[in-house]
Amino acid sequence: MNRPFRLGLTGSIGMGKSTTARLFAEAGVPVWDADAAVHALYAQGGAAVAPVAAAFPGVAQAGRVDRARLKTLISEDKQALSRLESIVHPLVREARRAFLAAHEMAEIVLLDIPLLYETGAEKDCDAVLVVTAAPDVQRARLLDRGQMSAAELDLILARQMPDAEKRARADYLIETLSLDQTRAAVRDLLQRIGQNIGAHHA
After folding, report:
1. Which of 162, 161, 188 is nearest to 174 (CA)?
2. Cβ atoms within 10 Å of 1's Cβ, excluding its own
3. Of 23, 29, 34, 195, which Cα lies nearest the Cα of 108?
4. Which run of H or E residues covers position 42?
5. Record's NCBIfam families (predicted)?
6. pTM of the model as a whole
7. pLDDT at 201
8. pLDDT less than 50: residues of the chain
9. Residue 161 annotated as binding?
10. Is 15 assigned a ligand-binding role in the annotation?
11. Is 123 within any annotated ligand binding site?
């Protein structure tokens, strides 16, 4: 295999995905973050600003997409989300291709994609890691942050593929119980993938 092993990372909101991605980065693995890519596309000079502004007049302010306005618009218009996705998803895929081209000498790369299964991105991965936690742990983490109400959380969860389905489709699972346990699980997984890559080359 003349390219890096592509490990997809996903998991429902509050499952510890961002922390897990950070632990891979700390272990020296190049990480591509789909959310960060979208933020860059919406920022000043971002490739999504002009097409999104054309499709949704009034959402661009000072040369960038106003995410709060966009969120309001999507909640009011049932068709808006699919129109937005048809603009943004191809640009995100392009950003991912550029990342992969820039890291073609790496042994393993991590693709951190919240809606990995929902967008069919698993087809571009060699394996998928799903991070998970018990439902009560998930709810407690999110509601304790004070950034959303229980009703808002239920709305987000209703839009995401259920955790059980993600777990069933995963190649690897990490239950994020504690930071130390998750760090150990990441190290263990990198070792296993490294051995598999070695076996293929042997």
Report:
1. 188
2. 9
3. 29
4. helix 34-42
5. dephospho-CoA kinase
6. 0.90
7. 61
8. none
9. no
10. yes
11. no
